[in-house]
């Protein structure tokens, strides 16, 4: 690839200057200003609404003022995510589409670069135009795509802006997402009508750019949505030709193979359609179980058993090797109704055997048959109820207008995030995986004039430009891993400091969360404890980026989890302030102190209250955060919540954690573990009472009393044991339904052994068949509920975890493949396994905000 097409422009001196903090395209996560006295621009940058009001109402400033960089106060408030300041400035007449700074950008474009959803929503609500382009030709949709922020992208796709709008070089948002390897954004853009075959000025399609990154999920999704595998660029290269040239043909082949195609993009023939395949898999066990039981009834047991086993394995072979042939079908067995079909077949033949063989054999025991019918009916009902409790998808809105209204309502309420809105990703596989070895070329090509052959050169790997920045800095900030590797081989200083922030290459990469650049630099001896001129070390900067995998990797490097910046803030304080619940949880698991104070006396719990994120508040309190800690002004976190008018979030956070608003734990009737044991055992006890009631009383009173007992059991579980004031799990997160099915199976077997077995001694085959079917039913039920425990295996020790992290950061932990775990933002993120016994540990999804100034 040549440099005909440019990406986010390389950072310049103005982009990292504290004294002239202009809007930056790719580097600066923070925008700060240094002035001797308070001005309207400093107040806007700090989000100080009181100071803004004083300055504007006194007449010493206005909302339309511009500084020496031609930037308005609204720009500074927008880039620092101060929504209250933005709202006040707009009320005072600020120009919502004012252009300023070196890039001649609007406030909304400054906010879009960092993916500030609610700033975008506020500005658009006040008439901001998302189609305006800056001096680089990027409109708001391009810039949000650059940020890889999925929720802002979703919001913009329902605004009046073309999904196929182009930048100055003809790139669409889809091309950018494909180049960045952002499979979730690629999928979302395609769902909203993005054209997979448009070409930029160099003749490159989104599929070409996906090949450049080497992300097989993006490649597969584009081809599935009609991307032309034969499209040629200006140099007559197809995407496959480019894959050969970039030595990523393996990723190309795997991507198409997982999509049921050969390497030329031709779909392989399937024996059945996807829908009919699933129907066949569900029905097949019923047919084969009939053959198995007929075999056992006709042949002697010593040959019948062997032949029945052969038939069973033949059924399994048909399902896994013929119907689910990996060359034509991409789902695994656990993603099909195979196990559900086996359990259903077992139930069918249990009922068939009872009706045809046993019912007329024991006419003198009507209660036994009634009990058997009830138990089998409950077993069947609870089985089908259990498998439909979590379908793995969210209900789809009836129309695009309804969807748009839902998104608008959630954005207005400040709740448009992964916890309230499911973006279902259909290009499944092993998950979104970055491709660190295939990033040698990019939109913005770094082409240092270095020669490995020893010929004359005009530059060296240690050269510095007029900003005192080395080539390694530029390669690191643009995520060019091949260029970084080459520069390091040529003697580049891995800890060279440069730029106005006096930062190292690793710190430049950390600001954007580039995991593999960080891994490469640390492997070459980079020091993660080095701080820049603002006092931020690599751990702080990765936390600012809200990138969970780089944070997980750094927590296994030699750097203190409680290291402080120049103002005494720890990484935990930053994560809490950003509302990044996943980072907060990860830092606490790795020993971060929840009670350290910064220079202002604020603890992480104070900063979580500032953001108002109840998940962060709850997690900090659960991990020992002091609810009575006071800052320099003698304010506790609760006092601050009252002051910031977020007492409701504070109360809800503690209530969900089983505490009152003062942080005192409410007494529980049982411990969490014993509660779950009681919930699992209770149905067995109550089913005994129900059946005894039915056997003693007449049916017309027994049925009513039995129903009352059943609802009594349900009340005890849902209102006493799972009292919302003391226990936070829902019913579906407990073993309640598993206990009901288990109780049903227990009493089926009990009734058979005590009432039916001796009634039909002349029919041994019927009892054998019954035992086999019930055994299969029980086995497959317990097998089904243990297939996906909801957690990843926990490493045996911290040493084992640390040994795994430095060598292969791309395989730190396996990806959950169940469709129930939809993925968050531009990657699927897993909570680190905790080894707890609290049921399904689903990955949490939280909206991530970039760093803004504290003072």
TrEMBL record:
It comes from the Eukaryota. It is an enzyme of class 2 (transferase). The lineage of its organism: Eukaryota, Fungi, Dikarya, Basidiomycota, Agaricomycotina. ANK repeats lie at residues 69-101, 106-135, 169-201, 202-234, 467-499, 504-533, 567-599, 600-632. The keyword Repeat applies. Keywords: ANK repeat, Membrane, Repeat, Transmembrane, Transmembrane helix. The keyword Repeat applies. PROSITE patterns: ANK_REP_REGION (PS50297), ANK_REPEAT (PS50088). This is protein S-acyltransferase. Pfam families: Ank, Ank_2.
